[in-house]
């Protein structure tokens, strides 16, 4: 018979099309969770709630006997009891490729920058496991970030994961934009999670600028989008960075902010029926953070240097998310509100910031210069009360004397304008001149 396919493969599509469609119904709605009866599924499956053509995409977040708990993936439509629910196709895969550079996409990989549809691209699955602990390459070379204070006093290696800890309005996003323009990484992937819609365009056009955008891929999920979309955007950005790393490239993954990813997971976990634990965060929040952060880092070829902002609650650097992130990351940068108020930008608290890999990626002579400046800054902080009341006597401490004498030079080194370009070698040369001046004055 012409066109006959052995095993009935020719008829398989027709059989599937003729199979009865199973339809569930919304049985209850509690908070953000939608319970569905009469439909089978697993966690992560997609469903469509409502009549075809006017339905809402949702995802299964918990499974109980006879019930699925779902949360909407997009849209905010109300769903009364009895609304039909159908199984939906799998979520679209993640678009990857060099043609994404300079584009802005959402958590589903759709362009939102008004530049038209994406060109034909390869698509990869969203899920991917982190490299095994013994498969990772050791971090031995520094990565230029383009910020003098970071390149010298908080040196970052290719494949390191660093947290930027600060309260709201202290300059985290501005610092990220400086890094996107000044880093020598081949690709920058920027995830804006839970940002105010107004700030997204300002960040892209003013802070990042055309030059920074041209070498970046931006993934956006604003604060008004459902929790699942915010979480998915963080996973999409990480997956895009992994694809470039697997090609042997060195990538900088910047996520603003990790705290809002945790808040999205808190909404999902509580809606799924998890018990609230530390300050209302369910246990899944902390496991989600760990699995997300571990996917960055160095692999056998290529690397992902992760820079994650952490919005500390009430400037409390020991709140649960900040504490959990600090325990996983390879270093932390603290932004100080007191410095920001005085116009000191970037408002990096050098003494409160540390890179756990600085000693492994920095030559001894440069490390000595960084240590010398830290010692002078520490001495100045210890004697600040005496200096404020005029009780300090010059000559009592050589390091305090150096801090007072070279205060303007130190501030000039630590401060940097948004549009001021800096190279790592130039920053180290400037630091060497400064520390030599300390020695000459002594």
From TrEMBL:
SMART domains: AAA. It catalyses: ATP + H2O + cellular proteinSide 1 = ADP + phosphate + cellular proteinSide 2. Pfam families: ATP-synt_ab, T3SS_ATPase_C. One of its GO terms (cellular component) is cytoplasm. Its main location: cytoplasm. Transmembrane segments: none annotated. This is FliI/YscN family ATPase. InterPro entries: AAA+_ATPase, ATPase_a/bsu_AS, ATPase_alpha/beta_chains, ATPase_F1/V1/A1_a/bsu_nucl-bd, ATPase_T3SS_FliI/YscN, P-loop_NTPase, T3SS_ATPase_C. CDD domains: ATPase_flagellum-secretory_path_III (cd01136). Coiled coil: none annotated. It is found in: Cytoplasm. It comes from Leifsonia shinshuensis. Signal peptide: none annotated. PANTHER family: ATP SYNTHASE, SPI-1 TYPE 3 SECRETION SYSTEM ATPASE. GO terms for biological process: protein secretion by the type III secretion system. It comes from the Bacteria. Keywords: ATP synthesis, ATP-binding, Cell membrane, CF(1), Cytoplasm, Membrane, Nucleotide-binding, Protein transport, Translocase, Transport. Residues 158-339 form the AAA+ ATPase domain. One of its GO terms (molecular function) is proton-transporting ATP synthase activity, rotational mechanism.
